[in-house]
Amino acid sequence: MTILITNHPEKHRYEATIDGQLAGFCEYNLLQNAVMFTHTEVLPAFEGQGVGSALARHVLDEARTQGMPVIPVCQFIAGYIRKHREYMDLVRPETQRAFKI
Predict the structure, then answer these.
(1) Which residue among 28, 84, 86, 101 is least enclosed by CB atoms within 10 Å?
(2) DSSP letters of 10-44?
(3) DSSP for 73-86, written as a single string
(4) Beta partners for 35?
């Protein structure tokens, strides 16, 4: 199984597909100096298959590549960062306190 993740800026979200079917998405807002992740959802038929983790890893890696700090309003993304501390440097210090990261 291959999870393909693509950015759809016109929708303000990344979409994960499996075999051409939408499996999940991560919504975001681009701010002047950061990207705010607002909501992540995995469709019920694809839960438990690593779609959410693949989305989180992809969007955080892309933010790092673009040099964009992140604001993880989305609880899934915030939780992923708590578990994967290698992404802590992407989160603004004031945001870390606000979201208990």
Answers:
(1) 86
(2) TTTEEEEEETTEEEEEEEEEE-SS-EEEEEEEE-G
(3) -SHHHHHHHHH-GG
(4) 30, 70
Q: Give the domains, in start order, of the chain with CATH numbers.
A: 3-98 (3.40.630.30)
Which residues lie across from 40 on neighbouring strands?
26
Q: What is the pLDDT at residue 93?
A: 80
Of 8, 96, 1, residue with least CA distance to 50: 1
Which residues of the chain are under the pLDDT cut of 70? 98-101
Contact 5, 14 (CB under 8 A): yes
Q: Which residue is associated with the tokens 């995995």?
A: 42
